[in-house]
Design goal:
The complex is a heterodimer of chains A (482) and B (253). Chain A has one domain (6-476). Chain A is built from 13 helices and 23 strands. Chain A has helices at residues 6-14, 37-46, 51-66, 105-113, 118-125, 143-148, 156-162, 164-170, 181-189, 429-437, 442-453, 455-458, 463-476; strands at 28-30, 89-91, 128-133, 136-140, 152-155, 192-198, 208-213, 223-229, 234-242, 249-252, 255-260, 265-272, 284-295, 300-307, 312-315, 318-321, 327-336, 341-350, 356-365, 370-379, 387-396, 402-411, 417-426. In chain A, helix 7 (156-162) crosses helix 8. Chain A starts with 5 loop residues before the first helix and ends in a 6-residue tail after the last helix. With 253 residues, chain B is α/β, with parallel strands linked by helices. Chain B has one domain (2-252): P-loop containing nucleotide triphosphate hydrolases (Rossmann fold), CATH 3.40.50.300. Chain B has 10 helices and 12 strands. Chain B has a 6-stranded mixed β-sheet with strand order 6-9-10-3-11-12, with helices on both faces. Chain B has a 4-stranded antiparallel β-sheet with strand order 2-1-4-5, covered by helices on one side. In chain B, helix 6 (148-162) runs parallel beside helix 7. Chain B is globular. Chain B starts with a strand and ends with a helix. The chains are: A alpha/beta (482), B alpha/beta (253).
Chain lengths: 482, 253
């Protein structure tokens, strides 16, 4: 990937359409549509879950039934009809994959098209990958190598069976089932996801990565990710996502919980490229995700996200800075084009003393899209000497899009230091003229300017991801000026 | 190299150029001088293809092609370079990345292979030395946080990297101290060759002490009203522009 050249970019740019819009013809095991206790029992039994897991789901479902869908976001969409979704769909498989060789060739082809040929990944990049298609985790690479270090990296369902003590101890501790409407729904019907545990003092030697793919029509994806970094551990975790091009809106409601124990560090990077709908706003994924991490003493959680896909995005990767001297970071690039809507940001909850948080948010809006930053910085009364720095920049392309910033600051300790900077700019005609005068085409000029604008965030991404993200930015903004 | 015939142009219905003629041959350096508001920068912008201006009459032939028919980027790719009076900042984009992208687009246009990383770096080293540009500036974001002098030097550095047939320097001397002026002029002189040409737009004669022009033209009220050799610049420096205005007025009577 490192020798990616301008010519490659040029080629990618010509590939205007959403290039992950294909459907894989794999027979799937899909349960009937609808949402009730029986469906939840069915999901649980399909997954051969223990009773405690079923109880957890049923409790969450009971909570969910008492809740109403929130409406405070700066987004407008037709609410999903929860009775018309199939909550479980799995690529049909006769037996569990024991090794890479067992994986369905059609499935392998899909991965290849997505640019995640595992064989290659395994050999070249040293990234361990977990691939989740629709509701089921399909393959996890590098497992044995990781387990030598005591690292557990597997599908969530496997963790429920193999490591119930860890799952029971931590699941729902950062995002309780009653947290919000979509978190409750996820807790009731989640089907799979990734689980990762790094033992005390272990530095995970490679990037761990999960690739999410919605394939079936009429389904939703409700995955759950739980990452635990034990005392002094370190892990860098990546997730990528794509979906086929369909006229319907599909719901993706994930829950991601991060737990950083004393002195641990978790770096969590997302490149979100769910199908955004077509030029007229038809179809696309509703991306309603709850992501939150908790930091114990002297630990650090860093969220980096590049959001280019989805028709509607609604997510706030957050940090609860519980331990003294803990650090939370949020780096975000959110791009909206055509009729996309994004309401995204973060919450930094400072509970401990000397806690520190940094928020860098870069919004780019084009077409008729709406892009909002919404962030909360909350300093509790015991959070002596808490510090926050926030920078929220918006870049507008054309004059039919919107950019909005909703920063909330609640400070209950006078020793806190909070800084907030915000800018709104347009890609200047002057900048474009300057670039063109040097021989650059308009598309190339925009791609350069936008990537420069997002640099602080892109720099946080691991190398291969950064290249991927740069390409995505250029493709998402294709044809948005002039 | 470039032949401008009877060029008329306006911006927001205000006539700025009113029948400008200029013929520049390969190997020549032409200086265009004139009082404020005479249309000097407009001329530079129009030749480079800035969209704010409308050409209402006349034509421009550049290296055998109809310049006004070409897009801004194609003019650049054909070898026309404008050193901006106020160079633009592009935050987050490194100078070298910017130039490499530009250079490769130009090469692609000419059907050439992209430049190798090794050759490119060698070129950066060579050309940045030419304008005494700190190599640190080459890796910093384009013009961001540069001093006025650094920005101008960076323009000449870019010019050296892209090696244009025709360079137009729009008030490159403005805001430069004497050392920077010498460095910039030195850079331009080293790039002089029988195959390329330059149009130097300036207010003051002082730059022309360092870059000796073959011709000096006075632009006034949208037209070239007087042309001469390098001594014309000295005369202007000494007497100002008023005598030309008077001369024109008396001719009109």
């Amino acid at each position: 990937m490192s020798n990616y050249t301008e010519t490659d970019l040029e080629k990618d740019l010509q590939d205007q359409e959403y290039k992950y819009g294909f459907v894989t013809n794999i027979e799937s095991d899909k349960i009937p549509v609808g949402l009730n206790e029986n469906i939840i029992r069915l999901i649980s039994s399909k997954k051969e879950e223990p009773n405690w897991m079923l109880d957890y789901r049923l409790k969450a479902f009971a909570v969910w039934q008492t809740m109403t869908e929130p409406e405070w976001g700066h987004v407008h969409y037709e609410k999903p009809k929860f009775d018309e979704i199939a909550y479980y769909s799995a690529p049909k498989q006769s037996k569990k994959y024991e090794s890479w060789e067992d994986v369905d060739p059609e499935m392998k082809a899909t991965m290849k098209k997505l640019g995640i040929s595992m064989e290659e990944q395994m050999r070249l990049t040293g990234v361990a990958v977990d691939f989740v298609m629709d509701s089921v985790s399909v393959a996890t690479s590098f497992k044995s190598k990781l387990s030598e270090l005591g690292i557990i990296f597997c599908s969530f369902s496997e963790a429920v069976k193999e490591h119930p003590e860890l799952v029971q101890k931590y699941m729902g501790t950062v995002i309780p089932t009653s947290d919000n409407f979509y978190a409750a729904l996820n807790s009731a019907v989640f089907t799979d996801g990734s689980f990762c545990y790094i033992p005390k003092g272990v530095r995970c030697p490679m990037e761990l990565s999960t690739y999410f793919r919605i394939n079936e029509g009429g389904t939703g994806q409700f995955e759950r990710t739980l990452v635990i970094a034990d005392e002094g551990a370190y892990v860098s975790y990546l997730e990528g996502c794509t979906a086929p091009q369909r006229d319907e809106n599909q719901l993706h409601a994930a829950v991601v919980e991060l737990i950083a124990l004393e002195n641990a560090e978790i770096k969590y990077s997302t490149v979100q490229n769910w199908y955004p709908g077509d030029k007229n706003g038809l179809g696309g994924i509703y991306n309603f995700v709850t992501k939150r991490g908790i930091c114990e003493r002297k630990s650090k959680i860093s969220w980096t996200q590049v959001e280019t896909g989805s028709a509607v995005t609604w997510k706030y990767p957050s940090c609860i800075l519980k331990g003294d001297y803990s650090i939370g970071e949020f780096y975000s690039v959110a791009v909206t084009n055509n009729y996309q809507q994004a309401d995204t940001g973060t919450k930094m909850i400072h509970l401990g003393k000397n806690t520190k948080s940094t928020i860098i948010s870069k919004g780019i809006s084009a077409g008729k899209s709406q892009n909002s930053y919404r962030g909360l910085v909350q300093i509790h009364k015991n959070a002596k000497n808490a510090r926050n720095f926030s920078q929220c920049d918006s870049l507008l392309m054309g004059d039919t899009c919107g950019a909005h910033t909703f920063p909330y600051i609640e400070c209950k300790n006078p020793s806190a230091k909070i800084e907030h900077e915000a800018t709104t700019s347009k890609i200047g005609e002057d900048q474009l003229f300057y670039c063109k005068q040097r021989g650059l085409s308009e598309e190339k000029a925009i791609s350069l300017i936008v990537n420069g604008y997002c640099k602080e965030v892109l720099n946080q991404l691991p190398m291969e991801f950064a290249v991927e993200a740069q390409k995505l930015l250029a493709i998402s903004l294709e044809g948005s000026v002039g | 190299m470039i032949n401008i015939v009877n060029l008329h142009a306006e911006v927001e219905e205000k006539k700025i150029l009113k029948g400008l003629n200029l013929n520049v041959k390969a190997g020549e350096i032409h200086a265009i001088m004139g009082p404020n508001g005479s249309g000097k920068s407009t001329l530079a912008s129009i030749l480079a293809g800035k969209e704010d201006y409308t050409v209402t009459e006349g034509n421009v032939e550049f290296d055998g092609k109809d310049l006004l028919e070409l897009s801004t980027e194609d003019r650049a790719r054909q070898g026309l370079f404008l050193a901006f009076q106020y160079p633009i900042e592009i935050p987050g984009v490194s100078n070298v990345n910017f130039l490499k992208s530009a250079l490769n687009e130009i090469r692609e246009y000419r059907g050439e292979e992209p430049i190798s990383a090794k050759d490119f770096l060698a070129l950066v080293k060579e050309k940045s030395a030419l304008v005494e540009l700190d190599s640190k500036l080459a890796s910093r974001s384009v013009n961001e946080g540069f001093s006025g002098g650094e920005k101008k030097r960076n323009e000449i550095f870019q010019m050296a990297m892209l090696n244009p047939k025709l360079a137009i320097l729009d008030e490159t001397d403005s805001g430069l101290d004497i050392d920077a002026l010498r460095i910039v002029a030195n850079g331009v002189n080293k790039l002089r060759s029988p195959k390329n040409a330059a149009i130097i737009i300036t207010h003051y004669q002082r730059l022309l002490d360092y870059i000796i022009p073959d011709f000096v033209h006075v632009l006034y009220d949208g037209k070239i009203v007087k042309s001469g050799g390098k001594e014309l610049a000295l005369e202007l420096e000494e007497k100002g522009y008023d005598w030309i205005k008077e001369e024109l007025a008396s001719n009109a009577d």
